[in-house]
Design brief:
Shape: elongated
Number of helices: 12
Order of helices and strands: HHHHHEEHHEHEEHEEEEHEHH
Largest sheet: 8 strands, mixed
Structural class: alpha+beta
Mean pLDDT: 91
CATH architecture of the largest domain: 2-Layer Sandwich
CATH superfamily of the largest domain: Bira Bifunctional Protein, Domain 2
CATH class of the largest domain: Alpha Beta
Strand content: 15-25%
Low-confidence stretches: none
Number of strands: 10
Helix content: 40-55%
Oligomer: single chain
Distance between the termini: 89 Å
Bound molecules: phenylalanine
Number of domains: 2
CATH topology of the largest domain: BirA Bifunctional Protein, domain 2
């Protein structure tokens, strides 16, 4: 073997042994055995030698080539092993560590209150009905005995949509009462429904937001009277607030669609910006109610000489405010995550009574 070949051999062997990673080793391999590699180049020189010389030199070259290739291969698996070891050490999972805390979302107090209300009325035999947010004049007003000139139309601060192709101005429903009409038009009595849902009025202060929620109730049959209305609502108030001797006040009132009508207030105190139920000498109105007006029954094609019943509409925010001591209604819809963390509910902390609303 020539000195030249010998020194090339040891040079490549040293470089392979010194390669710190697979990338560096690959450069060594290409530099020696690749198309333009230093050992490959020597093969090209064989052609110019005498046959005897060529044979000797060829054998020596092949031997060196094989040795170098074997050394590179050995180093390759050594480096691959080392890299795997390092990776295993780096990525080791400590299964004894406690899990990272995950931030669960919270149920908004309105969602939670609606769930509870449905559960309570569900036990009293009511089922849930729904209707559209965008209503026509007939269902929102006229069928409910609220005529064109009736002051209730103005009092309700209605949001009107632009005139449609039929020259009609639809409204964002100002209450859930239009679903009374839709239900009475669609089914025969006996009727026993509640309607939780969104309602809209142009109003904004500590107890009003332009979008809010109501829960409507409607019972129509041949025997239901005002005593049933009172009993149901008192029972409901005690159940939702969980207070046996809750101060509940029925106050005579007026609605075009009920006769007689009453509003219900809950005794509370608002001293020092804190809202507390069952204490103090203040009252918070939570609902309107009454016996369904015979004209309303007739407007829906129900015989008012045979059928009668009661209706009520309660403010869900009002109830949530009282229940959870939240003094300002506007905060419900400011979407402040700190507020929600404080007043919201962990969804899985206790079995929810009703699902899917
Ligand atoms: N719709 C009335 C309101 O929004 C409430 C109500 C409902 C009153 C049903 C009587 C009967 O104020």
């Amino acid at each position: 073997m020539t000195n030249e070949l010998e020194s090339l051999r040891s040079e490549v062997m040293d470089a392979a042994a010194a390669a710190a990673d697979l990338g560096a080793l690959e450069s060594v391999r290409v530099g020696a055995l690749g198309k333009k590699g230093s050992i490959t180049a020597l093969f090209k020189g064989l052609g110019g030698l005498e046959p005897e010389q060529r044979k000797l030199q060829g054998e020596a070259l092949n031997r060196v080539k094989d040795e170098v290739a074997a050394a590179i291969e050995a180093r390759q698996s050594e480096l691959a092993d080392a890299e795997l070891e390092a990776r295993l050490a780096r990525e080791r999972v400590d299964v004894s560590l406690p899990p990272r805390p995950t931030r669960l979302g919270r149920l908004h107090p309105i969602s939670r209150t609606v769930e509870e209300m449905i559960a309570i009325f569900g036990e009293m035999g009511f089922s849930v009905a729904t209707g559209p947010h965008i209503e026509d004049d007939f269902h929102n007003f006229t069928a409910l005995n609220i005529h064109e000139e009736h002051p209730a139309r103005q009092e309700m601060d209605t949001f009107y949509l632009p005139e449609n192709a039929e020259g009609q101005r639809m409204v964002l429903r100002t209450h859930t009462s239009p679903v009374q009409i839709r239900t009475m038009q669609a089914v025969e009595p006996p009727i026993r429904i509640i309607v939780p849902g969104r309602t809209f009025r142009a109003d904004y202060d500590a107890t009003h937001t332009p979008m809010f929620h109501q829960l409507e109730g409607l019972v129509v049959d041949e025997t239901t009277h005002m005593g049933h209305l009172k009993g149901t609502l008192v029972e409901f108030c005690r159940a939702i607030f969980g207070v046996e001797d809750l101060p509940v006040r029925f106050r005579a009132s007026y609605f075009p669609f009920t006769e007689p009508s009453a509003e219900v207030d809950i005794g509370c105190s608002r001293a020092g910006g804190e809202l507390k139920i069952g204490a103090g000498d203040d009252w918070l109105e939570i609902l309107g109610s009454g016996m369904v007006h015979p004209k309303v029954l007739e407007n829906c094609g129900i015989d008012s000489s045979r059928y009668q019943g009661y209706a009520f509409g309660m403010g869900i925010e009002r109830i949530a405010m009282l229940k959870y001591g939240i003094p300002d209604l506007r905060t419900f819809y400011e979407a402040d995550i700190r507020w929600l963390r404080h007043y919201g509910f962990v969804p899985l902390a206790e079995p929810s009574m009703v699902r899917g609303l």
